[in-house]
Specification:
By secondary structure, the protein is α+β, with helices and mostly antiparallel strands. The protein has helices at about 40-45, 60-65, 70-75, 80-90, 95-105, 125-135, 150-160, 175-180, 190-205, 235-250, 260-270, 310-315, 340-345, 365-370, 390-400, 415-425, 470, 510-575, 610-620, 625-655; strands at about 50-55, 105-110, 115, 120, 165, 170, 215, 255, 345-350, 355-360, 375, 400-405, 410, 430-435, 450-455, 480-485, 490-495, 580, 585. The N and C termini lie far apart (about 145 Å).
Length: about 650
């Protein structure tokens, strides 16, 4: 048996038949190379086709559900427990083959991405694969022994029995299940044999399925030492297998799809909400996400699935607002699975039994940052479609991966990215016709805007129910009452969005219950808006009243100042000769003026008493109340001065 230290790091494809896709990538021909050999060409020409599914997972959950604990412990040690537990919850395996066909029509092997007309490129990233399947990345690539036919004795020793029917190097899956499913060995040797049998069955049903329901015994080279199963990259092999089948089916080289088809299905549910069934519980934090879409959690419905033309139309009309760019935000990923987040932001080569396939993280930059942030990527590698023929010296660095920062340009405007998509990616597959938009007429009566509408209207939405606009024609009334600056109630219109975006905190698409709840919330927000506008108007009214009161006080202060200025001006006029004659007319005289000058910055204080005495003694009257108080003060000062003068005179007389 091979030890872990002697395991090769890659598979050899030298003696295998060269596949149709081993033709490389020519950057001079653009991304849509050999379009006549693509499924989208059949759609444009109106050619119908069918799809079959390779393999089936029906027997795997039943076997895993009753597996002997010592056997299950060694399989869990290989990192397969989460994946198998998720499969065991599926009472019925769901394969929406119509959805798979619609997706394959937009998958291009020149980029290994889906071309979406109004979004750009998207794909199943390593993070998506781990989140959905529960399979991790990392370790040695699977080993295949091409000389297994001459090792029948070793095979019998490893399995404990030889199958009755072997075609070439393949064995029937039914023989493995009937022979080993109910065994419950206690000794270590038989436990290891049952582990190998189960792993062969897992490879033949999930990882490398075939139309003949067989599994290749050459994979036994990876199963000799059951204690080294955790050193193999099972997730990477399954991931590359999915790319292999999708690429070959989209190129019409296969009539069936294999691998984990339900992963493609769940990916379309989570990101794009295509054909999404209703769920009893949203379970947005479920890991792996296969456990969320079990039969028990799906709401039973008699609604038929969408037709191919309807799905194509849905995909053509998808916009960035329709995409949930971070469907895994509520998932707490275990530490042993977090390597997928490193691979997410790289350009990495993956390997399976059929070949090697590139994942180009730079082309799906929005998925790597979990928000819509388009970048124009650089050309794919020249080995894009001939990974099987890569030189050994280049494989190690390709398997490790390259940072995507080296393979895309800086942030660009959305208009620039959309122009890039129109020029380089696959456009809409559903014919459209131009329809005049209602209510968009200029003063001269000509249309200002035209919009494209589907030629075949759809009467059902993606979930099979009535369209949202029909079910809630007035949801919500986009007019909000408010108090304007004049205190008058008016209705303020709010622009209505063209689409209802995905609601991330619910973990699923919009349903009727959520719509009713949203309607109540919007009504509450409208009332809050009205209350706030009323409060704002009240605050504005109070502020205006305060301003009016301050203005009145200011005018009163101005009146007082003017009164004082007039009085002082009259005082100066009287000081220049304001005494009345016999006829009562004030006449000028040569009296000295009042030394007090208002609003002066002179540091010397004026002699108000002297001024007052002069005016009082010579005019004999006063027309200001302030002089009465000065008069009293001055009379007191005169009495004190007279007493002081008399005292000094008496003192000199005694002397």
């Amino acid at each position: 048996m091979a030890s872990s230290s002697s395991l090769p790091n890659y598979l050899s494809f030298e003696n295998q038949r060269t596949r149709c896709l081993d033709i490389g990538f020519n950057p001079d021909e653009g991304l849509l190379q050999d379009p006549q050999k693509h499924r989208s060409n059949d759609v444009k020409q109106g050619n119908e086709y069918s799809l079959r599914a390779r393999g089936g997972l029906q027997g795997l959950p039943a076997w895993w559900g009753k597996i002997h604990p010592p056997i299950g412990a060694k399989i869990r040690a290989a990192g397969l427990g989460f994946f198998l537990d998720a499969l065991s919850h599926h009472l019925t395996e769901h394969k929406d083959l119509i959805l798979m066909c619609a997706m394959s029509e937009r998958f291009w092997d020149t980029t290994n991405t889906f071309h979406l007309p109004k979004i750009g490129e998207m794909t199943l990233t390593p993070e998506d694969f781990t989140m959905i399947s529960g399979l991790s990345f990392g370790g040695h690539w699977l080993v295949m022994d091409h000389e297994i036919e001459g090792k029948k004795k070793q095979l019998k020793e490893s399995l404990g029995a030889m199958p009755q029917y072997v075609r070439g190097t393949s064995v029937k899956l039914t023989w493995l299940k009937s022979t080993f499913e109910d065994k419950k060995p206690e000794d270590e040797c038989n436990i290891d044999r049952c582990v190998r049998a189960f792993m062969l069955y897992l490879v033949g049903t999930a990882f490398v399925p075939s139309t003949s329901s067989t599994v290749d015994l050459r994979f036994m080279a990876s199963l000799w030492d059951v204690n080294s199963l955790n050193q193999y990259n099972w997730g990477g092999a399954a991931y590359a297998t999915m790319f292999h089948y999708m690429a070959h089916f989209s190129r019409k080289k296969l009539k069936s799809l294999g691998g984990l088809l339900n992963v493609w299905e769940v990916w379309a549910y989570e990101y794009l909400h295509l054909g999404t069934p209703s769920l009893n519980q949203h379970k947005a934090d479920t890991f792996p996400r296969l456990s969320r879409w079990t039969s028990a959690n799906r709401v039973s419905s008699t609604k038929p699935r969408s037709k191919p033309a309807e799905l194509r139309q849905m995909i053509d009309n998808l916009t960035p607002e329709d995409v949930n760019w971070n469907p895994w935000s509520a998932v707490k990923l275990p530490e042993e699975f977090q390597y997928c987040q490193t691979l997410l932001k790289r350009r990495v080569l993956f390997e399976c039994a059929f070949g090697r396939y590139w994942y180009l993280g730079e082309r799906v930059f929005s998925q790597t940052v979990h928000r819509y942030s388009p970048r124009i990527p650089k050309n794919p590698p020249v080995t894009m479609r001939r990974g099987r023929l890569m030189e050994t010296s280049d494989l190690e660095s390709a398997f490790e991966g390259f940072e995507i920062v080296n393979f895309h340009f800086a942030r660009v405007k959305n208009s620039q990215y959309f122009r890039f998509c129109e020029e380089n990616l696959l456009g809409p597959l559903v014919e459209t016709k131009e329809v005049q938009s209602e209510g968009m007429v200029s003063e001269e009566g000509s249309n200002l805007e035209r919009r494209k509408m589907p030629s075949t209207p759809s009467h059902e939405n993606r979930s099979g129910f009535r369209p949202f606009s029909e079910k809630y024609p007035s949801f919500p009334p986009w007019e909000v009452p408010m108090i304007n600056a004049e205190g008058v109630m008016e209705m303020q219109p709010i622009p209505r969005v063209s689409r209802v975006p995905f609601v991330p905190w619910t973990g699923g698409p919009l349903d009727s219950d959520f719509a009713n709840a949203s309607y109540a919330i919007i009504e509450s927000l409208k009332n809050l808006h009205l209350t706030n506008s009323q409060a704002a108007y009240a605050r504005q009214f109070k502020m205006q009243a305060d301003l009016d009161r301050q203005a009145a006080l200011l005018e009163q202060a101005k009146g007082s100042i003017r009164f004082m200025e007039d009085y002082l001006r009259n005082m100066g006029h009287s000081a220049r000769g304001g005494a009345s004659n016999a006829s009562g007319v004030i006449q000028d005289s040569d009296m000295p003026q009042c030394p007090f000058v208002p609003y002066t910055h002179n540091s010397q204080k004026p002699d108000k008493s002297a001024c007052t005495r002069q005016i009082t003694s010579q005019q004999g009257f006063s027309n200001s109340p302030f002089l009465d108080e000065s008069d009293e003060i001055d009379s007191e000062e005169s009495e004190e001065e007279e007493e002081e003068h008399n005292g000094c005179r008496n003192k000199r007389g005694r002397q």
